[in-house]
Design goal:
This protein has about 260 residues and is an alpha+beta fold. The chain is built from nine helices and ten strands.
Length: about 260
């Protein structure tokens, strides 16, 4: 039986890309994707959080989810745009309809990402990479925004692959490639949530696909499934982490009771 081949298709900086296109259609001469810009917060009070950022904004160290006021400290000339969730839903619907026209076997998992089963369309392409390149190019030609496509034999790995180098890239991360491409994947404890951190040497193929020596650099959690698996292990009664957590809990209880008796 052949291994499944799964695509994870993810819009690059979805809210910012869609906002930039809408402003260009309204006559704005500046493409928000080409300057330090964010979507999120209140443009009048400059309160709120960053929902999406441009690649130039990322160069200033701006991250999704941080307070707008912090982002403005990092980049005083940062351009802010208000979100338009009705427009985002429309863009998402149009994208999913387009992808369903390529392969009807898709599973939408958020407003800007979905999984696609390559099996029903395998006969139409020489390889999964060729199909992924067609998807990326067709999305850009029709909608003028870019997507990343991650390819794997497991959903969680396909999602991780799509989050490698951006934008407009195809990456593979099959189970057999983990040792090669994620050779210094490591876990670290942050509070009670084990996370994943990895880095690799940068490089990409001419068609945007990943070479064996490509750089994958990330410092956030990449996979909820992986994290949950680690969490179950670390919190198990017999694990070192589980014992340490219980000891810490009992210590905090004793300190609380001692303060209460003073």
């Amino acid at each position: 039986m052949r291994e499944p081949v799964i695509f994870h298709i993810d819009v690059n900086s979805a809210f910012l890309s869609w906002t930039a296109l809408a402003r260009l259609e309204q006559g704005d001469p500046v493409d928000l994707r080409t300057i330090p810009s964010i979507v999120g917060g209140d443009t009048s009070t400059r309160h709120g959080v960053v929902l999406a950022k441009s690649i130039p904004a990322k160069a200033f160290g701006i991250t999704t989810g941080e307070p707008v006021v912090n982002a403005l400290r990092k980049c005083p000339h940062l351009v802010m745009a208000s979100p338009d969730h009705n427009m985002y839903r429309l863009k998402s619907q149009m994208l999913m309809e387009h992808l369903a026209g390529i392969c009807p076997d898709i599973e939408q998992v958020s407003i800007d990402e979905c999984y696609m089963d390559y099996t029903p369309i395998a006969a139409n392409y020489a390889s999964p990479e060729e199909a992924a390149a067609f998807i990326r190019h067709s999305v850009f030609e029709k909608f003028k925004f870019t997507v990343n496509v991650g390819i794997s034999d497991r959903k969680v790995l396909a999602k991780m692959a799509s989050d490698f180098e951006k934008p407009d890239k195809t990456h593979t991360l099959y189970q057999r490639e983990i040792a090669q491409k994620m050779w210094h994947l490591r876990t670290f404890q942050c509070g009670d949530s084990p996370q994943i951190r990895y880095s690799h040497d940068r490089g990409s193929g001419k068609d945007g696909s990943c070479d064996p020596g490509s750089t994958f650099k990330k410092s956030r959690s990449l996979s909820v499934a992986v994290c949950q698996r680690h969490r179950r292990f670390h919190s198990s009664p017999g694990s070192f982490q589980g014992k340490r957590d219980r000891q810490l809990h009992h210590f905090k209880q004793r300190c609380h009771h001692q303060r209460g008796s003073l």
